Amino acid sequence: MKILMVLFAAAMLSVSAHAAPFAKGDPKTGQTLHDKACVSCHANMFGGDGSRIYTRADRKTKNAQQLAARISGCNANTGAGWFPEDEAHVAAYLNQQYYKFK
Ligand code: HEC
Question: Do the Cβ atoms of 71 and 91 come closer than 8 Å?
């Protein structure tokens, strides 16, 4: 019985490891947060709505971990004052819209 429990737990873990990153975030909420706190600076650098920072060929962000780290960093740098769940919403938004990490 114990063995079964362990196998079951392992199966659950591997399922969640393969789930889309940032599945806990809500992209809609993320977009609102993002558009309020994050666009002006990127737009100054890249023109338009600034989204080219996310789509340019030599973008810095190569995986979901780096995306989360960058959002955390920009949150801290800009004093947006987001909670971790806000960062998750923005990560979900940026990933759905631009990065498309699996
Ligand atoms: C004060 C200006 C400024 C503000 C405000 C700002 N950023 Fe940035 N952001 C930067 C700079 C500078 C870079 C790095 C550009 C580079 O490396 O070429 C960057 C890069 C990024 C990247 C990585 C782009 C890539 O290459 O893949 C992400 C993601 C990002 N910012 C998210 C955010 C989020 C989320 C916010 C809102 C909390 C935010 N930024 C607000 C200046 C800013």
Answer: yes
